[in-house]
Amino acid sequence: MISFERSEPMIRFRVFGQVRMCDNSGQSVEVCGVHRRTLLALLLLSPGKVVSREQLVEQLWRGAPPQGETNALQAHIARLRRELERCFGSEKGESRLSTSTFGYSLHVEQGELDLEVFDTLRLTARQVADADPPAATDMLQQAVELWSGPAFAEVRERSDRLYAAAVQAEEHYVLALEEFVELNLERGHYDWVIGRLKALTAQYPYRERLFEQLIIALGKTGRRAEAAEVFRRVRSEMVNEFGLEPSSDLNRAFQHALEDE
C-alpha cells in the first residue's frame, strides 16, 4: 500500500471563494478594496513569475485605464505591499512582492496557495487510484474540502484571465467530485454516495456522470423504482431542453440498476 499521511498544508493565499490571505495562525485576513483583491488574484495566477505592468493595467481596468495608469498601478502595488506586511509582518511581507524592470511578482512557497494544493492532490490521487484506492480517496477528500466557493468569486468578472481561470477551476472541482464519488462507489459506500449525489445533481444538473453514479448507487441498494424515476426525469429534461437522448453510459447505468440484485 502506498504510504500517505494526511496533513493540513499551511495555506497562506486563498482564491476559492473570496480572494484573501492567511496569517501565521491560519486566520483569514481580508484584502481591502476590490482593485487590490483583483491585483492579488492576477499575481496569484502566476506565482513567482513576473507579470508585466501592461498586462496588469489591461486586466485591472479592462482596457480602459485611468489617466496616469502607471502611477495608479504603483499606488495599488504600494497598498497591496502594506496589506502583505500587515498579514506576514514587515520584513516577510515586504519580501513577498518584488518589483522588476518589466513588472511585479509575488513569492509563494509550494503548498501556500489553495488552488495549487487542490491541483496537486487531485492529480496525485488520479495517479495512485488503481494501486491504493483508500489513499486516493483521502487525497480527493482533502482536495474538495479546500473548495469554499467559486474561484476568484468577487473579482472573476473584472478580468478575462481571472474569469477563464475560475471556469477551469470549477471544471476541475467537479471532476474531482466525480472521481471522489466513483472511488466511494467502488468501496461500497452506497448510502453516503446517494446522499451526496442528490445534492450534487441539483447543483450541477447537466453533469451526466453524476446522474449515472446516482442511478448506479440506487440500483446497488435495491431502490430500482427511484433509479427509474431519476432516469426518466433526466431523459425528459435532455429531450425537452436540448433535443438529445441520454448517452450510452447513462443508458447502461440505468440497465445495470434494473438488473442489480
Automatic annotation (TrEMBL):
<dbReference type="InterPro" id="IPR001867">
    <property type="entry name" value="OmpR/PhoB-type_DNA-bd"/>
</dbReference>
<dbReference type="InterPro" id="IPR051677">
    <property type="entry name" value="AfsR-DnrI-RedD_regulator"/>
</dbReference>
<feature type="domain" description="OmpR/PhoB-type">
    <location>
        <begin position="1"/>
        <end position="108"/>
    </location>
</feature>
<dbReference type="Pfam" id="PF03704">
    <property type="entry name" value="BTAD"/>
</dbReference>
<dbReference type="Pfam" id="PF00486">
    <property type="entry name" value="Trans_reg_C"/>
</dbReference>
<dbReference type="InterPro" id="IPR016032">
    <property type="entry name" value="Sig_transdc_resp-reg_C-effctor"/>
</dbReference>
<keyword id="KW-0805">Transcription regulation</keyword>
<dbReference type="InterPro" id="IPR036388">
    <property type="entry name" value="WH-like_DNA-bd_sf"/>
</dbReference>
<keyword id="KW-0238">DNA-binding</keyword>
<protein>
    <recommendedName>
        <fullName>OmpR/PhoB-type domain-containing protein</fullName>
    </recommendedName>
</protein>
<comment type="similarity">
    <text>Belongs to the AfsR/DnrI/RedD regulatory family.</text>
</comment>
<dbReference type="InterPro" id="IPR011990">
    <property type="entry name" value="TPR-like_helical_dom_sf"/>
</dbReference>
<keyword id="KW-0804">Transcription</keyword>
<feature type="DNA-binding region" description="OmpR/PhoB-type">
    <location>
        <begin position="1"/>
        <end position="108"/>
    </location>
</feature>
<dbReference type="InterPro" id="IPR005158">
    <property type="entry name" value="BTAD"/>
</dbReference>
